[in-house]
TrEMBL record:
Belongs to the two pore domain potassium channel (TC 1.A.1.8) family. It is found in: Apical cell membrane; Cell membrane; Cell projection, Dendrite; Cytoplasmic vesicle. It comes from the Eukaryota. This is Potassium channel subfamily K member. Residues 96-156, 193-268 form the Potassium channel domain. It comes from Crotalus adamanteus. GO terms for molecular function: outward rectifier potassium channel activity; potassium ion leak channel activity. The keyword DNA repair does not apply. SUPFAM superfamilies: Voltage-gated potassium channels (SSF81324). It catalyses: Cs(+)(in) = Cs(+)(out); chloride(in) = chloride(out); L-glutamate(out) = L-glutamate(in); Na(+)(in) = Na(+)(out). Homodimer; disulfide-linked. Heterodimer with KCNK2; disulfide-linked. In astrocytes, forms mostly heterodimeric potassium channels with KCNK2, with only a minor proportion of functional channels containing homodimeric KCNK1. Interacts with KCNK3 and KCNK9, forming functional heterodimeric channels. Interacts with GNG4. Identified in a complex with PSD and ARF6; interacts only with PSD that is bound to ARF6. Interacts with UBE2I. GO terms for biological process: stabilization of membrane potential. Keywords: Cell membrane, Cell projection, Cytoplasmic vesicle, Disulfide bond, Endosome, Glycoprotein, Ion channel, Ion transport, Isopeptide bond, Membrane, Potassium, Potassium channel, Potassium transport, Synapse, Transmembrane, Transmembrane helix, Transport, Ubl conjugation.
Length: 351
């Protein structure tokens, strides 16, 4: 008996705090996924980093041995300055002196990466004025960009998602949930093809040092707004039509970001995902619901009362207008009757 009571109380406790338990599992799962990523990245990339460090150490030692007129400290100072300039997007290579990082097209590309929060980091403001303006520009521009993207996605999704699903549901009689799932899968496949696979092929052809995997990696990192900056198109030393290429990349990033948001919104509107998300949300208390219901009833009662008073006032106004018109018509008839009687009397006297 006691065991059954204890079991039932535990079940009631779990049912009462189901959302909290699910949320705790969600947090735990996210932390485990974060740790899993750290372990995998560390185990995969650490050996390559160690090999690169050993290679650079050997190259540095060989250079110092071959150029004894240059001390190791002088070499360290020179390399530090070179790395600092490289971090600002300025290269010391002789064949890279012809490309500027702050011409109009490069500045346009930089502005688009700032507003979309991609931020490759390959080009950064050099002056204090540029850094201050970047802060002000971002504070205003990022919310403006979010508003712009939200408005665009809200309009696009009506024609791309909602109307096609509704059309097949009404005219063909298919289940709305099944049509929505199939449509989301097809839309996702088309987006991946048009904004990932095809651009990756194009980038692998236009960029000399990129293969297909690196090009696809750039597309994903860019359109997901991660923007690591290890691969940036249009930075080649012998890049042809560099200005036009930069403008095309800017348009690609903007359109790709809109397409990604449309796909995400389409999947978020799926009934199954809505139900799945709700298990992690905080449920409203009954008291809060009762307050909302009471407030809604009060608002409804007030609205009904206002409508009733307005109807009474309108009816009274119409009654007054009708009465006034009736009195005016009666007065006109009396005057007309008096005029006819007077004319008849004058006619009889003339006879």
């Amino acid at each position: 008996m006691l065991q059954s009571l204890a079991g039932s109380s535990c079940v009631r406790l779990v049912e009462r705090h189901r959302s909290a338990w699910y949320f705790g599992l969600l947090v735990l799962g996210y932390l485990l996924y974060l740790l899993f990523g750290a372990v995998v990245f560390s185990s995969v990339e650490l050996p390559y980093e160690d090999l690169l460090r050993q290679e650079l150490r050997k190259l540095k030692q060989r250079f110092v041995e071959e150029h004894q007129c240059l001390s190791e400290q002088q070499l360290e100072s020179f390399l530090a300055r070179v790395l600092q300039a490289s971090n600002y997007g300025v290269s010391v290579l002789s064949n890279a002196s012809g490309s500027w990082n702050w011409d109009f097209t490069s500045a346009l590309f930089f502005a688009s990466t700032v507003l979309s929060t991609t931020g490759y980091g390959h080009t950064v403001p050099l002056s204090d004025g540029g850094k201050a303006f970047c802060i002000i520009y971002s504070v205003i521009g990022i919310p403006f960009t979010l508003l712009f993207l939200t408005a665009v996605v809200q309009r696009v999704i009506v024609y791309v998602t909602r109307r096609p699903v509704l059309y097949f549901h009404i005219h063909w009689g298919f289940s709305k949930q099944i049509v929505a799932i199939i449509h989301a899968v097809i839309l996702g496949f088309m987006t991946v093809s048009c904004f990932f696979f095809i651009p990756a092929i194009i980038f692998s052809v236009l960029e000399d040092d990129w293969n297909f995997l690196e090009s696809f990696y750039f597309c994903f990192i860019s359109l997901s707004t991660i923007g690591l900056g290890d691969y940036v198109p249009g930075e080649g030393y012998d890049q042809k039509f560099r200005e036009l290429y930069k403008i095309g990349i800017t348009c690609y990033l903007l359109l790709g970001l809109i397409a990604m948001l449309v796909v995400l919104e389409t999947f978020c509107e799926l009934h199954e995902l809505k139900k799945f998300r709700k298990i992690f949300y905080v449920k409203k208390n009954k008291e809060e619901d009762q307050v909302h219901i009471t407030e809604h009833d009060q608002l409804s009662f007030s609205s009904i009362s206002d409508q009733k008073h307005e109807a009474e006032n309108t009816s009274l106004k119409m009654t007054n207008e009708t009465s006034l018109k009736h009195r005016q018509d009666t007065s006109n008839l009396m005057r007309e009757k008096t005029r006819i009687t007077k004319d008849l009397h004058l006619t009889l006297m003339a006879l």
